[in-house]
Amino acid sequence: MNLKFCILFSFFVRNVIARGGYRSTSLSSAADLGFENESYAGSGRHLIEENQSHHPRTDIARGYMTNSELERAVKEFGRRCSHISRIYSVPWRLYTDWFFITLFEGIFDFGISIGESVRGFPLWVIEISDKPGQEEPEPAFKFIGNVHGDEPVGRELLLLLANWICDNYKRDPLVDLIVDKVHLHILPSMNPDGFSFRRRGNANNVDLNRDFPDQFFPWNNNEDARQPETKAIMSWLREMRFTASASLHGGALVANYPWDASLDKRKNYYACPDDGTFRFLASIYSKSHYNMSLSKEFEGGITNGAAWYPVYGGMQDWNYINGGCFELTLEISDNKWPNAKELPTIWEYNKMSMLNLVASLVKTGVHGRVFSSDSGRPLPGLITIKGINYTVKTSGTLADYHRLLVPGERYEVMATVPGYKSKATRFWLEKEEATNVDFILDPEVSSDGTLLRSICDCGRKSRLLSIGYFWGTHFEVYLVLIVVLAFLCFLLTRRIKSNLLKQRSPPKRSVLTV
User: Fold this and answer.
1) In 97-251, which ranges are E strands?
2) pLDDT digit string (tens) for 36-47?
3) DSSP secondary structure code for residue 434 in this structure
4) Of 108, 208, 370, 477, which has the fewest Cβ atoms less than 10 A away?
5) What is d(CA 471, CA 255) in angstroms, rounded to the nearest whole number?
6) What is the mean pLDDT of residues 370-396?
7) Catalytic one of 331, 432, 444, 476
8) Average pLDDT of every residue of the chain
């Protein structure tokens, strides 16, 4: 009983430190968060909106999950589909949170998320995989919904997607491919405060899709000035490596890809280095959709962001530049806030698009790992494709990479690691079939026969990564041992202090009874 108390106390202290103070992790109602009414409605299609009226229109809002209902739905999914999912925190708390949740599952309700909104609502994330929470040499995909508060369709569809995958695992080959070969991460609502206010911006009325550092205008590059929701996404991408992602919006029907803006601020096509790959990914979504590819406004149902209308400080471009993540902006309904009765139809129109987009991570592209020839250790390094000015990093621990490319073409891929000889190989990328290329690199040797990697930090990094991998693999066992040892140290310290106090206290007066 004492051990459980100490563990619970440690968990409580950790969360107080992590959250900057105590707050209840139980389900919170809208009133608890300062939202007096969750029945406001958004307007129709507007690309850029300012302050909106707060007059309730319950006929439009009825049928959508409130934030409290969304929270319950996420937690319920985690319990119902725990065999292929978990509700998780940022990676540096991933294993410890998993330990505490598993140890006390069903006894306490621990609330953990990647961050919080301005008003303190958790940003819940669902991870779906056959080995959730474990690092594997597999690509990762993330969906983000409700970036704009008045575009709630995405948050509804993402819960439907998660549950559909859970219900059809081991029944549908496409679902099996996704669960077994991809780590899918779902953030249903990035802007729960904006949803409650039924407006585009967050509680500070800031458009979160204009709040990221921008490649063309560095005036907003001060990360400390970012909104908490934006900072949560940025930290998330620094801690976890995603191959591709998509954010779900409303107000149009099109798959949008980088660049989202240009230096001259004009409305012109502005291609990024992977323009062909992005067009391919956007087309997968559009062609799998019921009618997106039939658009009369956008050819093939896809568009370059800058050619549509320039967006500065957008999440899409920041992902590609800083996160090594190929992100699309998906406009999935003409109406920003359609009647809830339309949600089943919108879901059916988008279901195959969402599934095929995630599955494309393993159906195409070049994948592999990088190893050292002298030790066999994984080597974290860089992957480049000849003719494309973009670099993909391998993972730090397993040194795996996942490079998305347009199929039906010939490529030359190169692996580079400091202190090792770079290697390149050519391959033909088939349609509907990914290519696997592993690299085994030889250490560079100086003229006097000394291994050059010995004078750089590469070997040390590799050893540390190997240790980190071993530690991560046995983390739960180590954590239990650490808790037990800490508890024993606590008891020992308490015993020593007690003995010292006894020694320092004055001797009792002796009473002589005659």
Assistant:
1) 126-128, 140-144, 183-187, 244-249
2) 333 323 333 233
3) -
4) 477
5) 41
6) 97
7) 331
8) 81
What single-letter amino acid sits at 43?
A: S
Read off the tokens for 447.
């003229």
Q: Catalytic site residue 331?
A: yes
Q: How far is CA 326 from the centre of its chain?
A: 13
Helix (H, G, I), strand (E, B) or coil at 3: helix
- Considering only CA atoms, which of 85, 94, 93 is closest in space to residue 132? 85
The neighbouring-strand residues paired with 370 are 439
- State the chain's maximal CA–CA distance in angstroms: 114
Q: What is the mean pLDDT of residues 272-301?
A: 98
Going by C-beta distance under 8 Å and a sequence separation of 6 or more, which residues neighbour residue 107?
Answer: none
Query: Tens digits of per-residue pLDDT, 431-482?
Result: 989 999 999 999 998 766 666 654 334 433 434 434 344 444 444 555 667 7
Burial of 436 (0-12, 13-18, 19+ CB in 10 A): exposed
Q: Quick one: DSSP state of residue 367?
A: E
The more confident residue out of 61 and 85 is 85
- Which residues, 6 or more positions from 147, have their beta carbon under 8 angstroms from its beta carbon? 154, 190, 191, 208, 209, 247, 248, 249, 315
Burial of residue 127 (CB within 10 Å: 0-12, 13-18, 19+) is buried
Return d(Cα 346, Cα 254) in angstroms, integer. Answer: 14
- Angle, to 10 degrees, between the axis of helix 153-168 and the axis of helix 173-181? 100
Which of 469, 460, 465, 458 has its CA nearest to residue 421? 458
| Strands of 171-213, DSSP E | 183-187
Predicted pLDDT at 445: 87
Higher-confidence position of 16 and 89: 89
- Distance between first and last Cα of the chain: 49
pLDDT(245) > 80: yes
d(CA 379, CA 397): 8
> What average pLDDT does range 153-179 have in this prediction?
98
Alpha carbon 145 to chain centroid, angstroms = 12
State if pTM tops 0.70.
yes
H helix runs in 323-377, sequence order: 343-363
Tell me the C-alpha distance between 131 and 401, whole Å.
19
Q: Which residue in 317, 323, 325, 328 sits closest to 215, CA to CA? A: 317
